[in-house]
Amino acid sequence: MDGTREPDVNSKHLMTVQVLQVTLGSRAPLICRIIGTMSLSSHYNSEKIRLSFELFPPRTAAGFESLRQHVVQLVRYEPDVITCTYGAGGSTRDTTLDVVDAVKRDHGLPVASHLTCVGATVDELRQTLDRAAARNVDHIVALRGDPPRGESEFRPVPGGLSFANELVALIRSEYPQFGIAVGGYPEVHQEQTDPQVDLKYLKQKVDAGADIVITQLFYSNEDFFDFRERYESVGITAPLIPGILPVINLGQIRRIASLCGAKLPAQFQSDLQRIPDDLEGQFQVGIEFAIRQTQELIDGGVPGLHFYVLNKSRAASAVLEAINWTSEFR
Ligand SMILES: Cc1cc2nc3c(=O)[nH]c(=O)nc-3n(C[C@H](O)[C@H](O)[C@H](O)COP(=O)(O)OP(=O)(O)OC[C@H]3O[C@@H](n4cnc5c(N)ncnc54)[C@H](O)[C@@H]3O)c2cc1C
After folding, report:
1. What CA–CA distance (Å, rounded) separates 36 from 189?
2. pTM of the predicted model, to two decimals?
3. Contact 47, 5 (CB under 8 A)
4. Partners of 215 in the beta sheet?
């Protein structure tokens, strides 16, 4: 996390890119490039704490309708951006744009579409980016993605990209109107053993043109603050936004934590395990933990909060109400 709120190295890099693009010519008009590329990092480099919610593409019409209702509840907290993930398997990919499009049309809020390199050539990535641009998406969360199910290693398709920094560079050079967020890993990315090597690659993504870094979910703020210290010590100045997933129930959280490797504090786990059959009790324990976690992050000077809301509004709303989000921060 970067609490300094100073214009970052990345902004200077973006200006250089813009000047080059003016010289070379590009599809986007100059004015759009200047406003678009500067907006996300400068937005997060302010005194206000920014708020974002992450959705995922529903699989059914009923799921879509339910999501719309939950988004109505979430917008009461005046989020700065709403993002939607990009389906790993391919089936829900177009729905990502449908979701952000609906949010933008229903609420006029800035939206970010996630995009991964999985199974796509550079030309196919361009087609997706063209569709995002046509639907007025504001920002892209640029990711490499996980290896497809059943494969242990990520392999790009022929003509595809190997790492997220390449996707960032592609977007920054050809679609300068988009703000760019990338993923960061306070507990180290699961394919990486050396935290400093992981950080080196994260810096590469930021240097390629990312405006902000959003972290993988975590439950130990100590890990996050330690990561922030190392992040700053290698010279990364892009705002670092903690990703928060309030617990909804024990089974779900175990699954998610095992997928992305997040550690659950022992006391928290035992508090949840003491009430294996009480879903409402687990929800309350999880929310109390998330309230403490969120308050501590705010006290620690984070520039924004990114809630993984899992298409529901209840958990994030409970946390935001408890920390008195609306009156204190807006
Ligand atoms: C905020 C957030 C949102 C996400 N949204 C989605 C989503 O919508 N859809 C989805 O499928 N997944 C999503 N993910 C998960 C993500 O796709 C996985 O964590 C994936 O395994 C890594 O993606 P990345 O962009 O961080 O990869 P990268 O930054 O490319 O890193 C992947 C691995 O390669 C290493 N590495 C990076 N660059 C290089 C290099 N140049 N040379 C050698 N090694 C390198 C890194 O250390 C790391 O171990 C999200 C993750 C986060 C944190």
Report:
1. 30
2. 0.89
3. yes
4. 184
Q: How far apart are CA 135 and CA 273, in angstroms?
A: 45
The Cα–Cα gap between 211 and 322 comes to: 30
At 148 the pLDDT is 86
CATH class of the domain whose range is 9-246+302-312: alpha beta
Contact 325, 305 (CB under 8 A): no
**156 DSSP 8-state letter:** P
- Asked whether the predicted pLDDT for residue 12 surpasses 70, the reply is no
Pocket residue to mutate for ligand 1, from 94, 155, 163, 191, most atoms within 8 A of Cβ:
163
The first and second tokens of residue 80, run together, are 């700065």
CB of 98 closer than 6 A to ligand 1? no
Q: Collect all residues with Cβ–Cβ distance below 8 Å to 48 and sequence separation of at least 6.
A: 329, 330
What share of the chain in percent tops pLDDT 70? 86
Tell me if 303 sits within 8 A of 44, measured CB to CB. Answer: yes
Q: Is the CB of 144 under 6 A from ligand 1?
A: yes
Distance 198 CA to ligand 1 centre (A): 10
232 is catalytic: no
- Mean pLDDT of all residues in 6-20: 29
Tell me the average pLDDT across 219-243: 97
Q: Which backbone phi and psi does 216 adopt, to 5 degrees?
A: -60, 155
The H or E element that residue 240 is part of is: strand 240-244
The residue whose C-alpha atom lies closest to atom 8 belonging to ligand 1 is 85
- pLDDT in the model for residue 328: 63
